[in-house]
Specification:
Elements (H helix, E strand, L loop, with lengths): L5 E12 L2 E13 L4 E5 L6 H8 L7 E6 L2 E2 L5 H4 L6 E4 L3 H4 L6 H11 L5 H14 L16 H13 L5 E5 L7 H18 L2 E5 L3 H7 L2 E6 L2 E7 H6 L4 H8 L6 H6 L1 E3 L26 H5 L5 E2 L5 E2 L20 E3 L7
Parallel strand pairs: 3-8, 3-9, 6-7, 7-8
Antiparallel strand pairs: 1-2, 1-4, 4-5, 9-10, 10-13, 11-14, 12-13
Helix pairs in contact: 4-5, 4-6, 5-6, 6-7
The structure holds adenosine-5'-triphosphate (ATP) and magnesium ion.
Length: about 350
């Protein structure tokens, strides 16, 4: 197997706060293969953006390692990191905050080419024109400023900029969630097309289960700073094993109304606990409809099951048989009675 474009090993990002240590990422191990899309899902506050920012070294991990194309970049200085920067890029949720309002679109897209001495002058202009066309913008957009564009167009500009130096890894953190619903699909389609054409690896962070099902080859599910399950996309959707994954997926709308009616929505009680004081034992036990005494005291390891799936739950047996959180009547309601969106 070729070297993964991204390899996080026991990644930790703790923040010191007046209330104590915030364990935003607490031992995250994952890889993104060459040309692979790994979806990272989990509810708000679970630590997805923290992982994404550490992966591209916009934030400093407090523990663990980050490898890009096999090179350990965890502790590289800014200076040492600079020549490697062209290999990885981050596309943010809100393109307006990541695009310099004083620069023209053409200059924004050309900047990485200039910084990495890939192209200047006429060659850069030609590259920019080609990139704008690839992301569905017109040549005249090059002379506009970000505020003269729509949200969807701005996100296309940041995608063009990120891809200008042909990175091996793109970290996309909720790239469509700030956009109008009507343009979200077109930006997702664009990302999917570009990914297929260019074959970059992608860590795709999102709340949107339909988007992750569409784009990701594999999915990692995060809960309170840790990964609780990892599997190929189709397998995860067909057969979620961790009770948290089951709950998360049960909230997603299903296109088929018959399936939708027969499904039970698992309602988790309470909020995500604070990463200042994660619960002992299994971090999910305070909200798990199936938790036992063992779950309250003993930390479950992330195990690799015979079929290759990774899951951290005491209730999943070694042969991979999973519990069914929806079978716990006290915490479920028929899905027809809930508005999921
Ligand atoms: N700079 C910081 N200082 C202190 N705590 C932080 C900092 N950045 C993030 N956190 C905390 O770390 C936890 C994880 O935050 P993060 O933004 O990574 O979550 P997320 O999964 O991306 O959430 P969302 O889906 O809402 O974007 C949160 O509890 C957050 O408050
Ligand atoms: Mg986030």
């Amino acid at each position: 197997m070729s070297t993964p474009v991204l390899e996080l090993t026991a990644l930790e990002r703790h923040f010191a706060s007046p209330g104590g240590t915030v364990r935003a990422a607490d031992g995250v191990t994952l890889t993104v293969g060459r040309g692979e899309v790994l979806g990272l899902v989990g509810e708000s506050g679970s630590g997805k953006s923290t992982v994404g920012r550490c992966a591209v070294r916009l934030d400093e991990p407090t523990g663990g390692t980050v490898r890009i194309n096999g090179t350990d970049v965890t502790t590289l200085s800014r200076r040492a990191l600079r020549p490697l920067r062209k290999d990885f890029h981050l596309v943010f949720q809100d393109p307006s905050s990541s695009l310099d309002p004083r620069m023209t679109v053409g200059a924004i897209v050309a900047e990485p080419l200039r910084l990495h001495r890939i192209a200047t002058g006429e060659a850069a202009r030609a590259r920019v024109a080609a990139l704008l066309a690839q992301v569905g913008l017109r040549p005249e957009h090059a002379d506009r400023h970000p505020h003269e564009l729509s949200g969807g167009q701005r996100q296309r500009v940041s995608i063009a900029r990120a891809l200008s130096v042909e990175p091996d890894l793109l970290v996309a953190d909720e790239p469509t969630s700030a956009l109008d619903v009507s343009v979200q699909a077109s930006v997702l389609n664009l990302l999917a097309d570009l990914q297929r054409e260019r074959g970059f690896g992608c860590l795709f962070i999102t709340h949107d289960l339909a988007a992750v099902e569409f784009l990701a080859d594999r999915i990692a599910v995060m809960y309170l700073g840790q990964i609780v399950e990892q599997a190929p996309t189709r397998e995860l959707f067909a057969d979620p094993r961790h009770p948290y994954t089951q709950a998360l997926l049960s909230a997603a709308p299903v296109p088929d109304p018959v399936t939708q009616r027969s499904r039970r929505r698992i309602v988790l009680s309470g909020e995500l606990p604070s990463p200042l004081a994660p619960p002992p034992g299994c971090r999910f036990h305070t909200r798990c409809p199936l938790a036992t005494d063992r779950c309250r005291t003993e930390i479950p390891a992330l195990r690799t099951l015979p079929d290759g799936r990774e899951v951290s739950c005491h209730l999943v047996t070694d042969d991979g048989t999973a519990p069914d959180a929806a079978a716990s009547p006290s915490r479920t309601i028929p899905s027809t009675r809930t508005a999921t969106r």
